[in-house]
UniProtKB/TrEMBL annotation:
Residues 11-130 form the LD-carboxypeptidase N-terminal domain. Residues 172-281 form the LD-carboxypeptidase C-terminal domain. It comes from the Bacteria. Keywords: Carboxypeptidase, Hydrolase, Protease, Serine protease. The keyword Protease applies. The keyword RNA-binding does not apply. This is LD-carboxypeptidase. InterPro entries: Carboxypeptidase_A_C_sf, Class_I_gatase-like, LdcA_N, Peptidase_S66_N, Peptidase_S66C, S66_fam. It comes from Candidatus Trichorickettsia mobilis. Belongs to the peptidase S66 family. Transmembrane segments: none annotated.
Amino acid sequence: MIVFNKTTDFIAIIAPASKCDEAEEKLSKAQELLSSQGLKSIFFPDIFSGDILPFFAANKDIRLKNLQQALLHPDVKIIWAFRGGYGCSQIIFDCLDLLPVSTKILIGYSDITALHLLFNQHYKMPTLHASVLTSLLSKQQHDFDLIMKVLAGGEIKIKLEPVNILDHHDVSGEIIGGNLTVFCNLLGTKLHPMTNGKILLLEDVNESAYRIHRYLVHLKNAGIFDNLKAIIFADFIHKDQDIKQTIQHFCFNEINNIPAYHVEGIGHGIVNYPVALGVLAWIKDQQLTVVNPFKLV
C-alpha cells in the first residue's frame, strides 16, 4: 500500500514528452486544480524551456533531469505527467541505474506508457493509468473525481464485453499495458515487455485499422501473446470504421486461445477511467477487478 499524506507529501509535475500551447497558464491551472483537493505540488526549473525540435517540452537532458529529480526527491510521493505526446522513450533507459528514494505513484497515459513499463517492470512499483494534467483541464470534473477516488483507496471494478467466443473462465494475473503504439516501440529494448501470465490492457488514438492490425501482428510475432492470461482492448479513438472488425478478426484468427475483452472509457475518450497497473487483477463474470495499492490520507 502506497500512502499519500496530504500534509507532508508532494506531487511533482513533470513534462517528459511533448509541449503544448499556453503551457505556463495550464500549469498554473493544474496546480490550482490539485490545490482545490488539498494536494501540494511542485515542478522543476526549465520544464517548458523548449528544444531545437519543436515537439518537445524541453531538451532531452532537462526532461531526464526533471524525471530523475522527482524520483530522488524525498518528499515527492506522486509523479504526475503534465501531458503525453512523444518523448518518454527517449529518457527512460537513462533511469535504469537510478534507484528511487521511495515508492512513487506515477500518473499518466498515452506516451507515459513507457514510464509505466519502467515503473512496473523495472522498479516493481504500481502506477495509475489515468489522465495527464492537461487532459483534466479540458475534461469534465468527473475524471478528476475518479482519480481522487482511486487514490483514496476506492474500488477498481470495470464491466467488460467479450470480443471472442471462448469459454471465458476466471483469470488472474498482473495487469500491465497502455498505449498500443508505445508498447510496440519498446519491443527488443532493455524494457522489452514481459507479459507471461499477465493481463494486457491496450488503447490507442488516431490510428487506422491496418496500422492497428500491423501492431497486433508485430506483438504476436514477438511472442507478447505467448502465455498471456487475457487481453483487454480499451478505447481506440478517432478510429476508422474498420477498427472494431479488425480487432475482432485478429482475436478470432490470430490469438483464438486467449480470452479477449472490450471496455469503453479507458484511453483518449471523453472519459478516461483510472486503472492501477503493475498490480494483481482478475476477471470474473465479465468484470475486471484490480487491486488498489493506493491510499490518500
